[in-house]
Amino acid sequence: MRPRTAPKSLYIFYIYHDCAKPMSKLVVVTGTSGCGKSTLIRRILNHENVSLSVSHTTREKRAGENNHIDYHFITKDEFMKMDRSNEFYETTFYDNHYYGTAKSELNKNEYVIIDCDRIGAAKFNEFNNVKIFFYNTKDVLYERLMKRYNNKEKAERRLQSYEIDMKTYREGNYKHSIFTDDLERNVKELETIIFGSNNI
């Protein structure tokens, strides 16, 4: 089955198993909305041996985002064409937009960062990887999202999955976690997880 249409805010997930095991060491990161994950990823990409798996998406660019760096921004028709050609390892539908990880993104460097939601993180279990969960309190996340969007309805909608995200974390689905309250310390924690042990 291929993604066609879906109700707003419904997750639809597909995984493709005809993808050979990546040569790169995958670092799968996920977290609650507003957790600061993107900021931490940008900092870790300062290392030459780390690359980001850039997802394809049908949503519009946010202020400050760059095409082919933050996401590959494409139309819905382009996304569906890639999907029919079996170019994606996984796809998901979130907040009325499609997202997908192309198979070609999984062999870009010694370490490849996979930025995804909790559903996507579960789909990379078949490969040897490190899984990291970023989080903070709901009140702090709400404040961050209000600063980002200046829209109460949108901030509340982005936090709809907070409880289930935290439940998934508490159930022990992630080997590592980072409480995102101090950027510089959090960067060092992330570097230690990726480079400072035999976790990968």
UniProtKB/TrEMBL annotation:
GO terms for molecular function: GMP kinase activity. Residues 24-195 form the Guanylate kinase-like domain. One of its GO terms (cellular component) is cytosol. Keywords: Coiled coil, Kinase, Transferase. Signal peptide: none annotated. It holds the Pfam family Guanylate_kin. Residues 145-172 form a coiled coil. It comes from the Eukaryota. Its EC number is 2.7.4.8. Belongs to the guanylate kinase family. This is Guanylate kinase. It comes from Trachipleistophora hominis. The lineage of its organism: Eukaryota, Fungi, Fungi incertae sedis, Microsporidia, Pleistophoridae.
